[in-house]
Design brief:
By secondary structure, this protein is mainly β. About 10% of the residues lie in helices and about 30% in strands. It folds into three domains: about 15-85, no CATH class; about 130-300, Sulfite Oxidase, Chain A, domain 2; about 310-430, Immunoglobulin-like (Sandwich), CATH 2.60.40.
Length: about 425
């Protein structure tokens, strides 16, 4: 067994916790309390980062066996010692990111799934919402949410990722960036819904249809053109994630889910699907979501997300407290199906060691990897690279820039790095 660093005894400060934080579960929320806690703070032009509240501390029992515990609530709250949070908050146009470095396993809790908003989060009454499917079909029809739930449902685990995930680190990398800031626009959930091909068969999709448009029911009416081939393959109209209804920020009451495709194509609050012969060339696939290249051309309809990985621990702002064995942990995924393996380097890419995959490897889903590393107290640069089942290898930053140019604006899947200093501090590897 590897030797582990010595544990630090609890201090009085460790046992002091905010009553507001302790009661920040659903019971307090239902009573009108304002949720509070430690909100990750970083500069963003897209949202407002709340200033931390000044809590009134309460004592945590020295011996929990000597006093009665607290009463149950309508929804089970997290421990007051655990405060993962989306950030930034107050976003209406932009992104709110998942705290990747504070999570374990592969499933992202529903309340920590990243959000990409184009004109705020739509609030929709499910009894009034419907999905219209028309165009090149034999039987145009509007399906209520209740109608959709009458079809045979499937449940699958898939990741979603914004095509702009990683832009902040590419454009303005800083040593003081957490995994949340670097790559927090990806999450992995269990989704439940009806296969879109079932609905296409129900309405009688016509043979000439080669594309379909999907339109959202939010104020931006975000719309994308999607190949019919994808719609007839694994596309899903989802109404649940992680065993409960979708959260509003992730498309309640229904959303389109396109495994392996860039997240903006998985239209939230989907209300209309039209089948046609050609793509529609919406503003969101001409002025946005096209990727400029070096030769004065641009990639368009580059739906499939490239293979990618990120080390989530150790990473900023953590610190290695002692020499010896430490686990290097992270996440890997690919829009091409399954990952094949993940390699880890502790010397800046000079040599690589295959990491252990600690759970099942599912298509279009996050996989968790780890490698035990014996740190000798010397500076080190930690990196990970994923190889997927097609043989695609996650590129270095230099190879990524050579292929795509510095003006590229989407699909930032190059290798990330973390620098460990001699004193154990860990920072993002700028320019790796």
């Amino acid at each position: 067994m590897p030797e582990l660093p010595p544990s630090k005894p609890d201090s009085d400060d460790d046992r002091a916790i905010s009553r507001r934080t302790l009661l920040s579960g659903a019971g307090a929320a239902a009573a009108g309390a304002v949720l509070a806690g430690v909100i990750p703070q970083f500069v963003s032009g897209q949202g407002i980062v709340a200033a931390p509240q000044t809590p009134s501390p309460i004592a945590i029992p020295v011996d929990p066996t000597a006093v009665p515990g607290i009463a149950s609530e309508a929804l089970s709250p997290r421990s007051p010692f655990e405060n993962p949070a989306l950030a930034p908050i107050g976003v209406t146009t932009g992104s709110t990111l998942t705290p990747l470095h504070e999570l374990s396993g592969t499933i992202t809790p529903s309340d920590l799934v990243f959000q990409r908003s184009h004109n705020g989060i739509a609030l929709i009454d499910p009894k009034k919402h419907s999905l219209m499917i028309h165009g090149l079909v034999d039987r145009p029809r509007a399906f209520s949410v209740g109608d959709l739930k009458r079809f045979p449902a499937i449940t699958r685990t898939y990741f979603i990722e914004c095509s702009g995930n990683g832009r902040a680190a590419f454009r303005g990398a800083k040593a003081e960036m957490t995994p949340q800031m670097v790559d927090g626009m990806t999450s992995n959930c269990e989704w439940t819904g009806v296969p879109l091909k079932t609905l296409f068969k129900e309405v009688g999709a016509q043979a000439p249809a080669r594309w379909f448009l999907a339109e959202g029911g939010d104020a931006s009416k975000l719309s994308r053109s999607i190949p019919m081939e994808k719609g007839m393959d694994d596309a899903l109209i989802a109404w649940a994630q992680n065993g409960e209804p979708l959260r509003p920020g992730n498309g309640y009451p229904i959303r389109l889910l396109l495994p392996g495709y860039e997240g903006n194509a998985s239209i939230k609050w989907v209300r209309r699907i039209e089948l046609g012969r050609e793509p529609w060339m919406f503003r969101d696939e001409t002025s946005k979501y096209t990727d400029p290249l070096l030769n004065d051309t641009a990639r368009q309809f580059s739906f499939v997300l490239d293979a990618k990985s990120i080390i989530t621990a150790p990473a900023y702002p953590s610190r290695l407290a002692a020499h010896g064995w430490w686990p290097i942990r992270g996440l890997a995924w690919t829009g091409r199906g399954k990952i094949d393996r993940v390699d880890v380097s502790t010397d800046g890419g000079t040599s690589w060691t295959q990491a252990e995959i600690t759970g099942p490897v599912l298509p279009f889903a996050h996989a968790r990897f780890q490698l035990m590393w014996k740190w000798d107290g010397q500076p080190a640069r930690l990196m990970s690279r994923v190889i997927d089942e097609t043989g695609y290898v996650q590129p270095t930053l230099a190879a990524f820039i050579k292929a795509r140019g510095i003006g590229t604006d989407y699909h930032f899947n190059y290798i990330r790095a973390w620098d460990v200093a001699a004193d154990g501090t860990v920072t993002f590897g700028v320019g790796a």
